[in-house]
Amino acid sequence: MNVAVVILNWNGKDLLEKFLPSVVRFSTEATIYLADNASTDDSVAFVSEFFPSVKIIQNKINGGYAKGYNDALKNLSEEIFVLLNSDVEVTENWLQPVISEFEKDNSVVAAQPKILDYKNKEFFEYAGAAGGFIDKYGYPYCRGRIFDTLEKDEGQYNDVSNIFWASGACLFVKADAFWQAGGFDEDYFAHQEEIDLCWRLQSKAGKILYVGNSKIYHVGGATLATLNPKKTFYNFRNSLLNILKNAKGNQAFTSIFMRMLLDGLAAFQFLFQGKPQHFIAILKAHFSFYLLIPKFLQKRKKYASKMKYFLIKSIVFQYFIQKKKVFNEL
Prior knowledge:
CATH architecture of the largest domain: Alpha-Beta Complex
Distance between the termini: 37 Å
Number of domains: 2
């Protein structure tokens, strides 16, 4: 299979200096692309000069993750896209174990490798860990990471496993399936657009896999810090959009109502912790969600699926009340 490794960049010269060498060194079987989101630094010039084998795609605007990748991928001809964050260090033979799963089973449409923390390499990394799931109310969690609890990698997830969503930090996706599902939803801008995409891919009978014998290290928060209120805004708003758009029947609306009550509790928790910007971010997320409801009701007519999207009803209850802190306790 022909493979394109596509790195989305926006003013990320420092990250490219640090992490692009490993990608070039260990991805000889793929064509590597830098998809630049209208950077104003000299990152494109740097890559052109020092990594001439990397092909440059120059987007006209900074459309965020969703539009940035949609624009970059539309003229590529490879069978598999590997969407790779610029703050990722890859390892030797990281591509082939995942690609072989696509070759063995034609129903596999997306996958991710094991994602470990670059800053603490014995532990899983927040954005994807060993593969993602969501609960009934749209809260994402992972094998290896539930909320802020990160597991140590002790080989407990050295398997190949079906998952609900593969991380956008390192997302392998079959090109034809990506476009048949409609690509990324650009109304998301950033955060959780991979969950929406994976939901749509599965509604068309596609499989999403985690492949534990492929390993990468992700910095995380390099483009938008974990404690940035913008990240809070996008995560809370986009979780609601995911359910409204993709969950079929009355369960969508009951889940949204319950989720909004839980969001209210989270907002006041931020306030009591002395983080008023995050309290405001959740309020803004809800108002933005209200404004998008008419548009997403139209999308719902096209994309909503009867497939069951959750393994457990409430990760909040299991984590905070039942004190189940790791995936294998759920």
